[in-house]
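User: quick one - fold this with beta-D-mannopyranose bound?
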Amino acid sequence: MSKIIGKELKNIPWQECPEGYTKPVWRYSENPIIGRYDIPTSNSIFNSAAVPFEDGFAGVFRCDSMAVSMDIYAGFSKDGIHWEINHEPIQFICEDGEIAKREYRYDPRVVFIEDRYYVTWCNGYHGPTIGIAYTYDFKKFYQLENAFLPYNRNGVLFPKKINGKFAMLSRPSDTGHTPFGDIFYSQSPDLEYWGHHRYVMGTFKGDASAWQSTKIGPGPCPIETDEGWLLIYHGVLTTCNGFVYRMGCAVLDKDEPWKVKYRSKFYILAPAENYELCGDVPNVLFPCAALTDAATGRIAIYYGCADTVTGLAFTTVDRLINFAKENNLEV
Ligand code: BMA
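Assistant: Sure. Structure tokens for the protein plus beta-D-mannopyranose:
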């Protein structure tokens, strides 16, 4: 039995695995949980992040507007399923006007570290890079320096310092839709100066795991377990009809997370339902958050569907780690 190292979350959104279902991750029966028009100006609400907050949940949501301008919005929920999302994007408090200039913001992640919540997102600064901010209450958000030079996407913080340093996974990219991408690890003493960059894992060029042959990127913040860091990530295949985004999992070493212990050659969830297959960008599953309950090993995954709506799916730590072990990809 693998164990989550972390807090109990009694009110984690949850549905039991349907009887006879043998795959590692199952969908919430009422998906999608957030519709594309759930705030008055939105064109789509997807690739979004939720965390436990007070006696319920808070989140940061990617809402593309009817101008198809990409921004991030705070929201609140009692049960993690029904959300009230603010109608205005987050206005960051920032001491440096150069950093505060908004180009675009998308694909947020949220994590609680020590005494506050940190938000990371893909932040336009002469190309995409990783924006960082913190908040205590999801009302006031304080923006810090961008983590890296452009071009980078999918900056995902670990939920605690590793070897005394803040730690982040990310995916160096390009200015466009990036036909490549591997996952790297970086660390920082203060969230401003990042270094100690290490290669974690890359695409797999070959028939043994083709779903992750074009690019991969970290999804939710890594989950601490007694076997190491459980990482849920996205993997992309290029087809004659464009990119297909699926979800995979890996286990990284506890103290040296750039070392991969197990990585599943099979995806754990792939576009198959209508709301995943059809939308503004068809065939996209893009996980950005996972709630966990250390007492039961339950995991609830929030994922963007077809760049249009937000879905919820469930699994357990045991199921995912066993799946990665049993189907380990020999690189
Ligand atoms: C990526 C990002 C994601 C998006 C995905 C599929 O490059 O832009 O926000 O979900 O493409 O379009």
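One thing worth noting: The first helix runs from residue 97 to 100.
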